[in-house]
Write a structure and sequence with these properties.
The complex is a heterodimer of chains A (257) and B (422). Chain A is built from ten helices and eight strands. Chain A has 257 residues and is α/β, with parallel strands linked by helices. Chain A has one domain: Rossmann fold (3-Layer(aba) Sandwich). The chains are: A alpha/beta (257), B alpha/beta (422). Chains A and B meet through helix 6 of A and helix 10 and helix 11 of B.
Chain lengths: 257, 422
């Protein structure tokens, strides 16, 4: 795993790279990117995996001008130019899925296949109910239940983290709040822009995901021409972490088709 | 020294504390009886009028979606007090401008109240407490940046008199700013800012606004005031920091006897013990710096939260959160605190809280105003310089501390709170 820093519009982006082959851009969820997670090496077998840390996540900087997901989509299109990536397959998890969707609407011709995993970014339900539960005001144990199929196994043991690791987690959450606060977890324009997407697109969720519901995923998928959906058993909002084998198999099968 | 009577205007008639997870944000307003609430407003306003008659100044604040302070629109009450009082300075502390969408509207409200009161407004500004991020739908990240842009714009709005100007800032946009009425005071109402951190105090000191800190006791208050004074000098405001640039808020109750004082003081503790807040409301992401969050995850606790678990009058007095007792005791407690932290020109008296009834609140106000306040004004006039420490021994003389009363005095209060407070 290599780690490089690319500076775009005043933002220092850390970019992780692993493997060789056709480029595969991976956009992490709100919890950040961890190079040691099992799914990473599985995806990098036979592919050039490129995983930037979003501005304000990991060790990427957060200039004052950045405050929404759209800003990051623009930065990542520039990142593709800098890395000489004319066309990529892309995987986005949760907020990473939202960033990917924004990129697809801006430059659809630059994407081959697309996998959106528990993506947020649209509102499909009624005004008087949040589509995505408010993870910032629910009691932390309730959030863990929404996030994981098996919270007891998956919830991180904070005592085992260094201060530096803990600082990254805290900062990731802070940046997430900055980006998704209002409108909460969505861009009202995005549903009207997704009609531009031309890529074969797979929408995925964990069967126990309490953040992105089955109905939300179905409604989201209907906004993209020809999109299909899939479910990963015994996984919550982070199936790539909770069920890495099933996740990698599903994704690689789809990308290799 | 100027002393300001302050009540958070709570609605204390609540179900037992263990029956709800949070007194703020989520407690349904089916628990608010508007008839009882209106009666509370009658007495709270009356208490401010009495403070005015007794020569004290007046302070009020606002909070949102909580029973601890049923004033979600302090400028409205400020306007009311502008007409119900005759001489007191009227301090609103404050306007939560990181949560307000239009700073110019806030400038208009303050200017309006200044005209209604013929120049008696002291305009305070606060970032807003963490619990009110969700009620305001306000982004908890970059609140400090929003706060300062809003305050700069408000001051500019007050001091611009030659027709419209525009503002296209990082957070706020106004194409036409030209407020009517302008403020009564020239150049504008005095500006106060509250903060309980040293970093915040340095920013306020650099700008020279009045800095208020709440219930920060001895050590933290001294550090916060030191930070203010350091920044004041560093930017070239002069070596001497006038004491009237600094304010300290404490729970204050003065009785004629120790027994009377203790009963009143016990009831004031409601402010600390009733503040039951679900943890996720108390610390939204970005509200405190990353390092402070890491420290909390490692088990650090806010001193006031730690105190609330074993709250007692005596402990509150020793910590400097509370000044309570006979006039002599209270005078000596304040003097000790004043000299330890280096001096301040304003005492914000939280003289009413929770179940402290009207008659007892009035007694406390009058005892303070008549028997303590004159001595404070004489000993600590607002011509004094802040930053001069007295020789303060680590423990107060026993005679200055209000001793715990009999068990009977504590029983009824805790049972009212549903047993959760003890």
């Amino acid at each position: 795993m290599q780690r490089n820093v690319v500076t775009i519009a005043g933002c220092e982006i850390e970019v992780h790279e692993d493997g060789a082959g056709a480029p595969l851009l991976f956009l992490h969820p709100g919890s950040g990117f961890r190079a040691t997670d099992a799914y990473v090496s599985m995806l990098a077998k036979g592919r050039r995996l490129i995983a930037p840390s979003h501005p304000g996540f990991g060790s990427s900087s957060l200039p004052g001008w950045i405050d929404n997901v759209d800003d990051i989509a623009h930065i990542y299109l520039e990142l593709m130019d800098r890395l000489g990536l004319a066309k990529v397959d892309i995987i986005g998890c949760s907020i990473g899925g939202w960033i990917a969707a924004e990129m697809l609407t801006k430059a659809p011709e630059r994407f081959g296949k697309v996998v959106l995993v528990g993506p947020v970014g649209v509102k499909t339900g009624p005004y008087d109910k949040l589509d995505i539960p408010d993870i910032f005001v629910l009691p932390p144990p309730e959030v863990a239940k929404l996030m994981f199929h098996d919270p007891a196994k998956m919830a991180p043991d904070l005592t085992k983290l260094s201060d530096a690791e803990l600082s990254v987690q805290v900062r990731n959450r802070e940046t997430l709040a900055l980006l998704v606060w209002e409108p909460y977890m969505h861009n009202p324009k995005l549903p009207h822009r997704l009609q531009r997407v031309a890529s074969p697109t797979l929408f995925v969720r964990g069967a126990s995901d309490g953040v992105v519901s089955a109905a939300y995923l179905e409604n989201y998928a209907k906004l993209v021409k020809g999109a299909t959906t899939a479910t990963i058993a015994a996984a919550g909002h982070a199936p790539h972490v909770e069920q890495p084998d099933a996740f990698a198999k599903l994704v690689l099968d789809f990308l290799g088709r | 020294m100027q002393a300001w009577h302050f009540s958070e205007t709570a609605y204390p008639y609540l179900p037992p504390q263990d029956s709800y997870p949070s007194i703020r944000v989520s407690l349904p307003n089916q628990n608010y009886d508007p008839v009882k609430g209106a009666a509370l407003w009658d007495r709270y306003l009356k208490e401010w009028q009495i403070a005015d008659e007794e020569g004290m100044e007046v302070m009020l604040n606002e909070h949102h979606q909580t029973a601890t302070c049923v004033d979600p629109a302090a400028p409205l009450v400020l306007a009311t007090l502008a007409r119900l009082t005759t001489r007191a300075r009227l301090l609103i502390l404050g306007n939560p401008i990181a949560n307000r969408r239009q700073p110019v509207r806030v400038a208009e409200e303050m200017a309006m109240c200044d005209v209604l009161s013929k120049g008696r407004i002291e305009a305070g500004f606060v970032r807003g407490v963490p619990y009110e991020i969700s009620p305001a739908n306000s982004n908890p990240v970059r609140m400090g940046d929003r706060f300062w842009e809003a305050l700069d714009l408000i001051v500019k709005t007050w001091t611009s008199h030659d027709g419209p100007f525009s503002h296209e800032g990082r957070f706020f946009h106004h194409r036409n700013v030209n407020i009517w009425p302008r403020a009564y005071q020239n150049p504008h109402p005095p500006v106060w800012v509250s903060t309980t951190s040293t970093g915040g105090a340095a920013e306020v000191g650099a700008k020279g606004f009045v800095q208020a800190t709440f219930l920060t006791g001895f050590e933290a208050t001294r550090k916060i005031f030191d930070s203010y004074r350091g920044a004041w000098r560093k930017v070239g405001r002069g070596n001497d920091v006038p004491n009237h640039r600094l304010a300290y808020a404490a729970l204050v109750y003065v009785g004629e006897t120790e027994k009377e004082a203790h009963e009143g003081a016990e009831k004031l503790l409601w402010y600390v013990t009733a503040n039951k807040v679900a943890p996720q409301y108390a610390n939204p992401p970005g509200y405190v710096p990353v390092a402070a969050n890491v420290a909390m995850m490692r088990g650090a606790e806010h001193p006031l939260s730690a105190f609330a678990k074993g709250a007692s009058v005596e402990a509150a007095i020793r910590s400097g959160f509370m000044f309570a007792g006979t006039p002599d005791q209270v005078y000596n407690q304040i003097k000790r605190h004043y000299e330890y932290v280096g001096g301040y020109g304003h005492l914000l008296n939280m003289g009413q809280a929770g179940f402290l009834e009207h008659e007892d609140s009035v007694k406390g106000i009058r005892n303070f105003a008549r028997h303590v306040y004159p001595r404070l004004r004489e000993e600590f006039p607002n011509t004094r310089i802040s930053g001069q420490y007295g020789d303060v021994p680590p423990e107060p003389p026993e005679a200055h501390v209000l001793r715990s009363a009999t068990k009977a005095a504590t029983g009824p209060l805790y049972s009212q709170l549903g047993g959760g407070a003890a």
